[in-house]
Every structure is written in structure tokens, then in C-alpha cells.
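Question thread 4412

I'm putting together a teaching handout and wanted feedback from people who do this every day. The idea is simple: show students a protein as raw sequence, then show them the C-alpha cells that encode its fold, then repeat with a second protein so they can compare. Below is the first pair exactly as I plan to print it.
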Amino acid sequence: MQTTKDMLRGYLATPREALLWKLDGLSEREIRSPRTPTGTSLLGLVKHCASLEAGYFGVVFGREWNGPDYQAGDDPNGDMFATADESPAQIVAVYRDAQAFADRTIDELDLDARGSVPWWPADRREVTLEQIIVHVAIDCARHAGHADILREQIDGAVGLRDGNPNIPPLDETGWAEHHARLVVIAESAESAESAPRG
């Protein structure tokens, strides 16, 4: 019988895998390039999630993370992009190390183990390991969703994992027709909004 801890680890594992898969087959420029006005990139999302796991499963439970601290320094966005001297392989390796570190915390502590998140407001700073696993799984899934959209913009690749796109099996023509239909719906909504009301 699956334990609650095993179930939560499964929910954390899925977005972790999805996020790394979004890098596969792309050039270094493609994974580094900012794709939004706020600078979001595929490699930056991986770096951020490494920082996320190291912090939430380290500092929060008084456990020492021996890897890089991407949030140290003067740049408030320092954990959201790879610097010129940080290679993709280094960032991915740190993310895998952070995952292993987080997994050790999960293995070694009970779900009701108490922790404290110093960067959260004081009235909700006190947490349990169970809360943190859920929080990090949700946060990682959110970023995997960002990565899914960024990757689709690059080469059209979509999906939850390799071999499982988790979307209807339309061909290029089918998706073009679907897209065109949505444009018509959106434009008709805009027309309806701007129409005079009597």
C-alpha cells in the first residue's frame, strides 16, 4: 500500500522530470534565451527550481545545503537565469543534486516534522514537511507549465513527458484549424464588448 509520503514524492517527481525534459534537443542559445518581457528562459526555470528545492528542504528544516546559493548576491533575479560562466550541464547537475538533497530530507524526516520559512510572513512561517512537499510540488509544476509554453514557442514540442503529450492527437492541420477557430471566438467576443448597448 502506498504511503502518503510516497504519494507526495510522486507528485513532486512528475514536474521535476517534465521540466528537465523541456531542455532536450535544444541548442544552448535556445534554452538560455529570454522568452518573456521579464526574462524567463528554460534554463533559468531549472536554475530557479534548484534554488527552490535547496532552500525549502534545507534552510526551512535546519539542514545544510552544500551546493551553490543562487539567491546570494546583489541581483534579485540571480536564480532565474544562467550567467555566462554557468553551463547548462552545471545547472542541470545542481538541480539533480538539489533533488537528491530534498529527497534525503523527505526520507529522513516525518511528514509532521516542523520547520520555519524565514522568507514567509511571520503569521504563516511555521510549517510541516508535508506542507513543504506540497508547496514545492505545486511551485515546480507551475514552472514546468511555464517551460511547456516556452518550449512550444521554440519548436512546437508539447506535453507532460516524452511519448505522452497529454493533448488531443491532432496533426498540424488540425491544430491550425483549432487555432483559427479560437481566434474567431476571441474576435467575436471583442466585437460584442465594443458594441453599443441599448
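The second pair follows. I'd like the answer to focus on this one:
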Amino acid sequence: MEVTRWLSADERAAWLRLVAVVELLPGVLDGQLRRTSGLTHFEYLVMAMLSEAPERVMRMTALAQCTNATLPRLSHVVRRLEERGLVERRPCPDDGRATDAHLTAEGWETVVAAAPGHAETVRRRVLDPLTPTQVRQLHEIGDALLGELDPEGRLAVLYDPDPRA
């Protein structure tokens, strides 16, 4: 019989603070992007990933992986972005069974216009309250947690887009 390893008071306090951040931060980011750009945070993430891809094109399966989305969820979001003229879906030229998502010129302009406000919100709400030492610690904590939560590096394109750097 396995013994439950209960959290100590310090561990519980740290855990509950992380839960509160995980719950509050998405609403803060989503609210700012909706107000200033008419985008959800997830729509912005999808468009940002496309904006950084070669020729602003990604296979839908790769886009789903790097945004941690199921294909049905991603397809629904891309359909909404298509309706706004921000993204197009096209057959993959290398594999007729696959579909590529392409960021349109209007989509590029939209994500470029949204980026400064998003960066300012991240800075003001997450980074500015921390000291430089705490920012480094946050990086290290993120690496430690991601080593456990994402051992295969499925989302590495988000947090380590150029592992050689």
C-alpha cells in the first residue's frame, strides 16, 4: 500500500499560488487582446506561431502540437480566423492528405499590431513585479516543470524556438 505524500504547509502555499496564477493569467491576457485586437489569447497564439513559421505556413497537425490544441479545437479556431480573412487553409503541396494553415497579409498586420500591447501586458503583469533574479528563477522553475510535464518537448517551439541559441 502506497503512502500518500501530503504537501507540507510551504509546499501547499506555493502550489496554491501557482494555481491562482494559472487561473488568473489567461483571463488577463485574453481580456487585453480582446479589448485591443478583437482576438482571444489562443487566436493570437495560433497567429503568432504562423507568423514565425517559414513563409507563414504550418501544417495543421504541427500547429495543433505547438499550441497544445486538439485538431478539432484548432480547426474551429482557424475557421473563425478564416472568416475574418486572417488565415487561409490550403492543401499541403507535399501531402495531399494534409492541410496547411497560412497567415494572410491581413493576419500578419493584425498580429503585428497586437504584439506590442500583448508584450506590454506580459511585462506589466508578469515580469515587472519580479526582480531580475526572480525572472531567472522563473525561467529555471519553468524548465524544471516542463521537464516533467513535456518530456518529449512537444511545446518546445513555444519556450525554446531555437534550441541552438
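Top answer:
Good format. For the second protein you could add a caption like this: The first helix runs from residue 9 to 37. The CA atoms of residues 51 and 108 lie 7 Å apart.
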